[in-house]
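User: Sequence recovery, please. Input:
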């Protein structure tokens, strides 16, 4: 529950906080109405936009049983039942499972690593980050096959998979994330539009890759990739494999 203050510091209200990822605003509103009724939106604050949204429900307008029902309705899309950020949730999960992770970034250019290290204590779990913006860096630092890059391009599932595997191996980490894509405004090619990206995830069970097509400005796209990557790792750590399977672009071991 979050408490709000006025300018003088006086407590004025309380709200239950629910944070969700990977749902469009329309879908969020539909779930809210399904559980709380058609007039509920007048008493709810929705902040943010896809892929991460914060929902505030004033405690004076809703009972706790309503909040519990709503959390159940959101299911695996709900990543936080309070003020915790997605990055903190991920780090807490890693800590609870006594595992570590690393990152290999291209399109996000260090933004993913920066987001992670904004959380105190990240150094206990985050072993190493690789910013491999050029093709040569992907080959030299992560062991990506130059032939795969030449044949399919740097923005491809094969490269993304190899980046994730390479980061995990070189950093001796249990998990790793990788990002490659086209943030724009230029850079599109035939069959590869601005906003196309691949996110890779290496885990003890295998290496996976997901395809996304985002819209927005260059910074919007990069931020969406960061949130989506962290949410994929969260889903894996929490065991939501049915959600992960629906996104897979390349099968484990490819």
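Assistant: Recovered sequence (254 residues):
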């Amino acid at each position: 529950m979050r408490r709000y203050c006025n300018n003088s510091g006086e407590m004025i209200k309380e709200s239950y906080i629910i944070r969700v990822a990977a749902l469009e605003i329309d879908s969020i509103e539909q779930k809210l109405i399904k559980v709380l009724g058609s007039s509920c939106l007048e008493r709810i604050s929705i902040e943010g936009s896809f892929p991460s949204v914060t929902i505030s429900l004033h405690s004076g307008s809703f009972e706790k049983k309503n909040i519990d029902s709503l959390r159940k309705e959101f299911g695996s899309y709900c990543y936080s039942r309070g003020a915790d950020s997605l990055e903190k949730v991920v780090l807490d999960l890693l800590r609870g499972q006594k595992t570590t992770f690393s990152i290999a970034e291209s399109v996000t250019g260090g933004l993913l690593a920066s987001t992670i290290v904004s959380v105190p204590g990240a150094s206990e779990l985050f072993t190493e980050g690789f910013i491999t913006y050029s093709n040569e860096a992907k080959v030299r630092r992560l062991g990506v096959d130059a032939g795969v890059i030449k044949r399919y391009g740097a923005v491809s599932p094969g490269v993304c998979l190899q980046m994730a595997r390479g980061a995990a191996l070189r950093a001796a980490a249990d998990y790793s994330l990788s990002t490659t894509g086209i943030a724009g405004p230029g850079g599109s090619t035939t069959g590869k539009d601005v906003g196309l990206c691949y996110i890779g995830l290496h885990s003890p069970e295998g290496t996976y890759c997901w395809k996304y097509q985002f819209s927005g400005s260059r910074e919007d796209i990069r931020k969406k990739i960061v949130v989506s990557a962290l949410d994929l790792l969260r889903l894996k750590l929490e065991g939501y494999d049915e959600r992960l399977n629906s996104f897979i672009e390349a099968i484990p071991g490819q």
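The radius of gyration is 20 Å.
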